[in-house]
Design goal:
This protein has 260 residues and is an alpha/beta fold. The protein is 41% helix and 22% strand. The protein is built from seven helices and six strands; from the N terminus they run αβββααααβββαα.
């Protein structure tokens, strides 16, 4: 845990861990590091995949486990904290406000005419992310491109932008307090979870990112590593203890040398 972390930021991480596990993410951890980059995620989580298929007897269905979805939760406890990862430009922000209003209006129309666009990635229907790109609506695609172009300018070379570009996860969430930011200031594709009365509620849903299975498994592995570190800290297990344990295991597994 960073020494400079505030109590408010730590509480947002705790709430993100609770929210993720309450909504079907069976594996979750804080302070998850990513390979080959300097970023450390506040919280990352993994939800197992399930596929229904016909049983070999041909008379009943069965569920088969598949590689599931990953999610990233970035907690922002103050406006400066948010601005560090999002350099605001007034003109760009105003234009994004107009475009996001247009995007929301088109999404309502698509949701009405295409009820099958729910991704089914949550146990609860009201929290399922939505693939609005699936119908191939030209006006919506054009609006998304304009939003992506302007948010790239607004968040150029920042943590938000890079995490999406690198395909770090399937879903991205900003976790914050009400009034921290307007919806049109969210990075493109990110959802927003706001703290209200000690709980998190969905203020904006993220877009599902097309991430290869190998990358989802890689983040799952990192989540497991971070969880193991947390367990070691809780039980007072230091790195030296692990080294001693490894040396002991190696000596027991090596065959004894016979005297000549």
């Amino acid at each position: 845990m960073p020494n400079s972390e505030t109590a408010n930021h730590r509480e947002l991480k705790r709430l993100a861990l609770i929210w993720a596990q309450a909504h079907g993410y069976r594996a979750a951890a804080a302070e998850v590091s990513l390979p080959n980059c300097r970023f450390r995620l506040d919280v990352a989580a993994y939800i197992p995949g399930r596929v229904r298929e016909l049983h070999p007897d041909g008379r009943r269905m069965r569920q088969r486990s598949t590689v599931g979805l990953t999610a990233v939760f970035e907690c922002k406890a103050s406006r400066p904290d948010f601005r560090r990862d999002a350099h605001s430009i007034a003109v760009t922000t105003d234009r994004l406000k107009v475009l996001n209003s247009r995007k929301a209006r088109i999404e309502r129309e698509l949701h009405l005419h295409y009820p099958s666009i729910l991704n089914g990635d949550s146990l609860f229907q009201e929290y399922q992310s939505v693939d609005f790109e699936r119908p191939g609506h030209e006006r919506y695609q054009r609006t998304l491109r304009d939003i992506s172009r302007l948010t790239s300018r607004l968040h150029a070379n920042t943590k938000f932008d890079r995490l999406v570009q690198w395909g770090a996860a399937s879903l991205f969430w900003v976790v914050a307090d009400p009034g921290m930011m307007a919806l049109h200031q969210l990075p493109a594709g990110w959802g927003l979870l706001l703290r209200e009365d000690g709980e998190l509620r969905v203020a904006a849903k993220p877009l599902l990112q097309n991430v290869p299975e190998s990358e989802r498994l890689a983040l799952f592995y990192r989540i497991a590593q971070a969880a193991s570190r947390a367990v070691n800290r809780e039980h007072g297990i230091a790195f030296e203890d692990l080294r001693t344990g490894c040396a002991s295991a190696e000596s027991k597994s090596s065959p004894a040398l016979e005297s000549p």
